[in-house]
Amino acid sequence: MILTHSANGMANSQIARVLGCHPSTVDRKLDRMGRHCLLYLLIKLRAGKLPDEIVFDGLETFEFSQFHPWHLNIAVEKSSDYILDFNESELRRKGAMTDGQKEKRMKLEELHGRPDPKAIEKSTAAIFDNLIGDQDHVTVYTDQHHQYIKPLQKFGDQVTHDKTSSKDHRGCHNRLFAVNRYDMLFRHNSKNHTRETIAPSVRRQAGIYRAAVFAVYMNFMMDRRQRGIKDLTPAMVRGVVERKLSYSDIFDCRLFVFHYELPERCRQYYFREVVTRALPRNKGHTMKYAA
Known about the structure:
The chain has 291 residues and is α/β, with parallel strands linked by helices. It has helices at 2-6, 12-19, 23-47, 99-112, 119-131, 149-153, 177-189, 204-221, 234-238, 247-250, 264-270; strands at residues 53-62, 69-77, 83-90, 138-142, 159-163. The two termini are 23 Å apart.
């Protein structure tokens, strides 16, 4: 129930009220499901062939307050709408600000430090190092964000980088439709990402766990399209499962992290090593028997 409510637009406190439990219970359950889903996505990615057409973009959201924005970078297989991988990039607040907001941003940066200006570039590189591998040729579709260019240039002729203007109509004929659709669904179905939300993720780490739960839900439990052919999920189109999965199918057995070789970013996410600058305490996942 927590997974379904979380992936259909409810904040943690709302879920707690519906289920009659304490909000911290929901927080802990989502954290644990998030760790499981991170491993589940990694296992299923390695079970299938590497994608030869990838659509990539970032969803801008925020943690703690609007002075702490971050990008949720999402890679989707173009032919199946399967969420292949995702990660995060800490950003500096930008855009129109009052003089008071600029002064507050300056004080916060003096106190906590300034986010890496190349964070998106590094996160993009981390995703494609994991997805491209030793394939002969891969086509990557992105918008014209300048920090996407350098990470893809290093692959040379192995990668064709197709860039689409973000000003183009975002309908089904747009080459970025697969990832634009998930941007909309993240906004619509995840309360921590809706615009002008009053329920943002206090910690970026919690946002990552919820994103992992949402990715598993969309890949394996939801129809690829809400109109037309039913009972066909992105994972079925990709060929990694044969039928739509249920909660019991995904969580039927525990996945032990030490049985798998994790990419560095995935390892950091699993063990709660993502730091929220504005908070004085950032506790990692250090329990040996709950790993």
